[in-house]
Amino acid sequence: MERHREMEAVAEGLWGLAEEHEQRGDVAAAVKCLEAIVQSHVSFLPIVEVKTRLRIASLLLSHSHNLSHAKSHLERSVVGAIPPQKQIVNKALELVSSSGDGYPAKLWSCNFNSQLACALMIEGDYRNSISALENGYVCATDILHPELQWDDENSVERAAERCNEVWELIQPDQKASQHVERLDAAMKDDLQRDGEWLPKSAVFALIDLMAVIVGRPKGVFKEGVRRLQSGLHVIEEELAKLGIREGMRESDIQRSDIWTAGVYLMLLMHFLENKVTIELTRSEFVEAQKMKDWYVRFPTMLQGCDCVIEMLRGHYAHSLACFDEATFHFIEASKVHGNFYNLKKKFMLTESRSIQSMCHVYAAVSYICIGDVESSSKAMDLVGPVYKIMDSFVGVREKTCVIFSYGLLLTKQHNLQEARRNFANGLRVAHQQLGNIQLVSQYLTILGALALALHDTVQAGEILRSSLTLAKTLYDVPTQVWVLSVFGDLYREMNEKANELENSEYERKKEDDLQKRLSDAQSTVWHLELVDKVRIEAQPPHVMDLKRATAGPSKVDLDIPESIGLPNQPPAPLSRLREVDYGRSGKRKL
């Protein structure tokens, strides 16, 4: 008893000395006085140690950034609660071990072993603490849960560095197909592995979407349409389960469903976006209106999609030869994305510049199609700066689009030889690095027209035949009409009357088909609303503070043929620029 009084007197002396140091502003000395108590080889009463550790933690939190030491002292101050805690955790581990070897049991075992290890570390029982961690590690390995398996921070850092190295080695355009195929195979096998980074149905829909994106430029239409229908069906079913139906708005969604709903809504926008880009070649545009309606109803959760919608409105307008309206929507898309980027700039780097540049390029092509001197000047103002910085873009798709539009300007300026070299370079990139046969078809068509303008009829015929074959494979009616028009000029140049007559009849048939589709589109109730030179606006709800359920804007990656308002009389080959698909991977996403 006497000894405890002596130790208490020592503690009070050190407390007093620490207080004096603190009053003089020497916090480090105050902490050292207090640590002398808790680090002493002589035992103090538990209450003395608890009070001392609480005082140390208070000083560290108030006068330093040493949160880890403060946390350690706070943990040690509750050492009196450790024995009952260990008893409860051990009971829990016994219960888990008797419940089987399933995924939930092993996950709970990881949790309880982690808690037991923490309790043992606070007591200083490091040997048994390591043993508990090893048991948890075994369970984490069994359930394939890498987040629970990291040994230390260095392991995480090394793994992240290795992931970055591997990622840099993957060429996104050339190597995407094999990775999508592997994902597809995994989906079909339906591997029974628990744990989700996305809801399972969302993963399956995402794989369908990726298969469409990879297959569309290669002309895989039938499978692409099937995948789109499959993915849309899955998404609509999941949204229905969440109670999201026609007429519902985001203010009606339960808070607990916001994240899941956001995942499916963003996937839905991607599916509709890709469906629009397929249908632009067929002149069916109902999905563009659906995207607009969804955005108006869920503006907060689909934040960032307004840029994509404005771009698609521009493509729609261009497809119907409403070139002035098309330029408006492309420029607005650039402004919208710029505003979004300014709000989220720390999350978006070069992607924003690429997307804005593509908006300018698309607007430039629409200006070129208008055809007057002022519009051509505006097109040069838009394309020129982008052409100078295109090597800084992330992907080659953007570059091929810029090359194409710049070549159109060279053609417009009658610089045919330079335009020919420019298009040949773009064709090589599109064929070798992208494997995009739709874009290849567009390049071949313009190269055939240039060859004819330079009176190289033999090469023009060979190129145009290849282009027409690809356009038929892709069911790209606008490009077929364009190629047939150039063929007509070729046959007249070669004075082949029979071929010219046969070609003219086939061209007229295709053009009538296209004009009927365009007329049908113009007669729909939503046509004027889509082309109207008014930016889409949606007011977010004030009923509740919805948080965004998605990480960023939709990644614009389309390859759309922005064909095509056809005049009554077939124009000269180089004047049919409005029929050009300045195909980018930036445009038809597929």
From TrEMBL:
It is found in: Nucleus. Its main location: nucleus. Residues 558-590 are annotated as: Disordered. Keywords: Cell cycle, Cell division, Chromosome partition, Mitosis, Nucleus. It holds the Pfam family Cohesin_load. GO terms for cellular component: nucleus. One of its GO terms (biological process) is chromosome segregation. PANTHER family: MAU2 CHROMATID COHESION FACTOR HOMOLOG. Belongs to the SCC4/mau-2 family. This is Sister chromatid cohesion protein SCC4. It comes from Acorus gramineus (Dwarf sweet flag).
